[in-house]
Amino acid sequence: MGSRQPDSADPFGTAELNDATLTGWRTSSTRLAEDAAAEAELLEIGYRDRLFTELAANAADAAGTAGIVGRVCIWADGADVHVANTGAPLTVAGVQSLTALRVSPKHPDAEATTVGRFGMGFRATSLASRVVIASRSGSIVFDRQRTAAAVADFAPDVDVERLPAQRLAWPSDVEVSAGFDTEIILTVADPEAAAALVAESVDQAPDLLLELESIDEIDAGGTVFRRLDEGESVRITRDGHDHRAWLVARSSGTRWLVPLHGGRVVGLERDVLRSPTATDIELTLPARVITNLPLTPDRRDLHPGTDVAPAAAGYPELVALVPDDQKQAVIPPPALAAGRVDGALRHAVRAELTRARWVPSTTGEALAPERTWVFPGLTADLADLLGEVLEPLAHPDVSDRVTASLLVGLGARQLGLADLAELLSGVGGEDPTWWARLYAALSGSVVDSRDTEELGALPVPRADGRMHVGCRGLFLVDGLDAIDDPPVLTWVPTVAPAAYDPLLERLGLTRITPAQALDDPSLAAELDGDNPHGNLADVVLRLLSLPDAGPAPAALGSLELLGDDGELWPADELLLPDSPLVEVLVEDSPFGTVAASVVEKYDRRALLRLGVGWGFSVVHDPGPVAPDHDLPDEGQWWDSHEVPPEEVHAVRDLDLVDPDRWSRALSLLATDEATAPLLLGGYTRWWLRRYAEIGGTPLRHLRSVDNSAMRGLFDAIDVPDAAAGLLVGDLPDDADDASDWLSALADPDRAVEPGVAIRAHTALVAGLTDGRYRVADVEPPTGARTLAGTVAGDAVVVPEPWWVAVVPHSRAVLPGLPPLPEAAAHLAELLDVPIASEAYQALPDLAGEAVDPDSAEAVVLLAASGMVGPRQVVLHDDLLVRITDGDSDMEDADDDSADQDRVSSHRVPIWVDDTGTVHLARSRP
Length: 925
Fold this sequence. Notes:
By secondary structure, the protein is an alpha+beta fold.
């Protein structure tokens, strides 16, 4: 604090200044009142709440005048507030300005920057009753009480509080505190008021250090704030610790600053125009502007007619300094302005941003928004690719949805997916992998059907080297990406495998299997052309080498390959060099052998799938329309169906097997995974059972060694399990087969047990009732296998169980167990023989007792006989039935010996007569 010195001379001529002022007040009755009112207005309106701001501005001017970077210190001592600074000391001109009320000694020049232009900010100190200005050049004091005493002779009744406090100054012996050049000492009402003023300075100090570059340190009541200028940023420390940080750009006397928090830019929501200290002009820009525009005397508003546009200079430089991924924080969007000045400055800033080159691009070059293309959501991967072909493209860091929208507002062209598709036409080079990376990078931008429609014209490289517009009508063959040098399909437009990305399927690319590609009608048409098959065969075989290719359509069997004789052969007329099929075919078979060079070049599996033979070849037709598959006897098989077959899956060339090699041929068929399933049904089983013979016997008339059900009736052979279904079945296949069964049963040279014959009879009846053949189509046999195991020419069919006991076993033929009337009738028709009830007349003993069928005795006997309760039951002590062979009337019988030979009596346990009456014997024979 300054110490009082003895009175010294008046270095600033205050006495003369005071005399002039007092003379004016004496000569004009209103002058004193006007000065008092003007000072009060400046304090209460113009410079209210600006005490520390104005004193700091004066300190900055002093430092600038002295050519130094100054410092300021403020502290309280009781009711006194001290504000000390370094810089140029007080001058005579300064004192004259301070006492003149509206005169300033400040004149901006190239060497120093002054804050005010009217020098009236000091009136903010007039709130104090006494103000001392102590300086190295001398000191003065303003004192309201001394002013009252000076006017007492001509204004004795004036209120002291209504006197101007800073029109009269007197020399002071107060000295400036050590280390400072000037010190302002304000005596306020009390210590509490002094402490409050110091506290206010603590809040204002950080902003003042930004605004006033001529000072870099403020000590506010012991709290020390310092400004550290670090090129493109500035830091404010508080007691040695980081307090605030700003990114700063400079241009033509204007500075633009934006706060930094944790290293990230945080745009302002509201601020005020600063020129350089704060005005009352509200701004809504995201950055702080500190400029040097002309202001009104109270420094709260712009001077009328001031053009604010020059202050926009430097804003693009600030945006350029902001990290790219944070630029959205400082790009002002179109918004409702807070006032005229805010609107004009915002417009000027946006105009500057539109023209300036600050937008980062994918190539590293800075672009002006009006020359920029921006793709919202651009990723780094996509930028790496598009940057090669779309030169004015904004960098991904400024291509997020928010920043992209801001750039478009500044004149940038927004690109959509449809724009990209159009711009990419004719670019990107010939490298399919470039396109694959592009599609992968684009996939994240395609989220719905609208996006896929926009990419409808996206270029896609084809396997044949051409470009396809869009994905529709373009195909991808599964598995081609697994081949180092994939074949190029000429009959189907396919995407280059190296260009594939799943996005293409979302855009309409059709994925097809190798089988679908090979089944395309265009391939068959190309196959029928006049061009050689060399290249086509290469593509087809390489497709067939894919794991999931499957067999080729039968039509591709005509594809020509090189044979070992140097000639071109249809593929389905060639065999592999070591094919076992050669061993079973006839000597003059029409097959050639594929050249060894072809086998070495292509996968054996591919050759087999194409139709080159190893074993028997097969034909697959999922939708046949006619028997046109070049299969032997195919028409006969086709006609055997009431409804044409829905599919044809068959083994080919069975008619080329040497008749003496069918055993070996069956082994080949049964062990080949391609043909074994076909032995179970369809054409292949049909043909083999009829036309394949072993030992001169068709397979369907042979049985496996394990089939004892038909022993004796059919000869046994040993065949693979897969071929067992080709042998005799459970039922005859057709009329011819049924005729052969009957002939075998009638063959006296065959030892056929009665049980086997009965099973054969049951099967023959079942085939008939199943509709496999008609009786009229079956050739009747010359004899029938009887219950005695013999072959009889006069056989009769037993229709019901009780006839077994009365018909000679050498004539009796059983249709099944038990014999039933309906089955007996069918078998009799097939054999062309009568049933027993037609060949014999039967009469049970008449000496029986009719009983109640519900009686205990009747029920027991019926149960023992397995009979269902009849309506009439007759019990016999000893049941005899008389049988007459022929149609003779028993009542007309005479004693002729011939007739006696035709009649016989049989003791039986049960009989059912023509009326349905059940005759039962009480005692069993």
